[in-house]
Design a protein that fits this description.
single chain; mainly alpha; Arc Repressor Mutant, subunit A; 2 domains; three-stranded antiparallel β-sheet; 3 strands; 7% strand; elongated
């Protein structure tokens, strides 16, 4: 079974709890840490145990309410350590990839000052379908949009500046900015071919946006602000 974000949260949490004490972890502690019911936590930990991520131990309950009763405890296995190490490594590689792409995309705005906006748009539109990283894909689409904003009226630009502030409120704000930018271009003298492409890109943006983590959403919001500084 795939390591979903929820399952990964459980693995990371029980690893943290175990490392803090060196002792097996009761499912109630995991439930409290993650804000879920004890029974939901127990079912998840049982499933993770079946898949080899956890080992089970029984300890005698010393609490007076249930003296002598055995408690089910869990502790991480080597397989869990391997998965978390791989996820950490993958995260570092993605972070490095993002920094490189972010700097590249921002540097491309210099082409706008040289009057190469059309070439920039065509270049990014050609590269976009091959992208696999959702964060970079979203940044490409923001770059595509912002690169065309010079054809908009002052009123439209002010509206988009306000929408960029709303983008700080999360994914809904980001989607609203992209949708508003496309709507503004539709009302402008933008070429029909350009508008058709941007309309297609909106669905791509939405699909990738929902795949982002909270930290990636924050990175995208920062990128949007930096991109706007380049052109406004």
């Amino acid at each position: 079974m795939a390591i979903t974000k929820r399952r990964l949260d459980f693995l990371r949490n029980i690893k943290q709890l175990y490392d803090a004490t060196g002792l097996p972890v009761h499912y109630a502690r995991v439930a409290e840490a993650l804000g879920v019911s004890k029974w939901s936590a127990y079912e998840m930990l049982k499933n993770l145990e079946k898949e080899g991520f956890l080992d089970r131990q029984y300890e005698v309950n010393q609490v007076e309410k249930n003296p002598g009763r055995a408690m089910v405890m869990f502790l991480p296995t080597h397989k869990l350590d391997q998965v978390l190490f791989a996820k950490t490594l993958d995260s570092k590689l993605k972070s490095r990839e993002w920094e490189q792409e972010k700097e590249r995309l921002l540097s491309l705005f210099d082409e706008l000052r040289k009057g190469n906006g059309k070439a920039l748009f065509e270049q990014l539109a050609t590269e976009l379908p091959s992208l696999e990283n959702p964060l970079i894909s979203c940044a490409y689409i923001i770059t595509l949009l912002v690169s065309q904003m010079q054809i908009l009226s002052e009123n439209s630009l002010r509206l988009l500046e306000n929408m960029a502030v709303e983008a700080r409120k999360g994914p809904v704000g980001l989607a609203m900015f992209v949708g508003t930018a496309i709507g503004s271009l539709l009302k402008s003298a933008a070429p029909i071919s350009l508008v058709a492409q941007l309309s297609d890109f909106f669905s791509v943006f939405q699909n990738n946006l929902i795949a982002l983590t909270k930290s990636e959403e924050d990175l995208l919001q920062d990128f949007l602000e930096m991109a706007l500084v380049k052109v406004l």
